[in-house]
Write a structure and sequence with these properties.
single chain; alpha/beta; Rossmann fold; two-stranded antiparallel ribbon; 5 helices; globular
């Protein structure tokens, strides 16, 4: 049995964010926090400690690069989940997993579990 994780999910599409949260909760009774913007995500990162993060690349006209940098600085492993070509963004964060939207629930869960092993 895997340990319960605290996971930050950053996505500006409410239905996608809620779906990911439900998938990750079911996969291990994880504690999920949602952020729909860079500012909201950065506030949560300042207030709470996370085991992992799932970041959408494009958030209503801005990228989640600052969130990724904050995660890196705090030692929080993260993955990029995007409906766009995330390769350009990901090359700034070597070794970061990139998943394409839409992604199968099992793929998301597996990738997040691998992140927890990266700590």
């Amino acid at each position: 049995m895997r340990r319960k994780m605290k996971i930050l999910v950053v996505d500006d599409e409410p239905l996608i964010a809620l779906d990911m949260a439900a998938i990750l909760r079911e996969a291990g009774d994880n504690d999920i926090r949602l952020a729909a913007s860079v500012a909201m995500a950065l506030d949560l990162l300042r207030q709470e400690r996370f085991d992992a993060a799932v970041l959408d690349m494009n958030l209503r006209g801005e990228t989640s690069a600052r969130v990724a940098e904050a995660c890196t600085g705090a030692g929080i492993p993260f993955l990029i989940l995007s409906g766009y070509n995330a390769a350009q963004f990901a090359k700034n964060f070597e070794g970061v997993p990139v998943l394409a939207k839409p992604c199968k629930p099992a793929t998301l869960v597996s990738a997040v579990h691998r992140l927890s092993g990266a700590r």
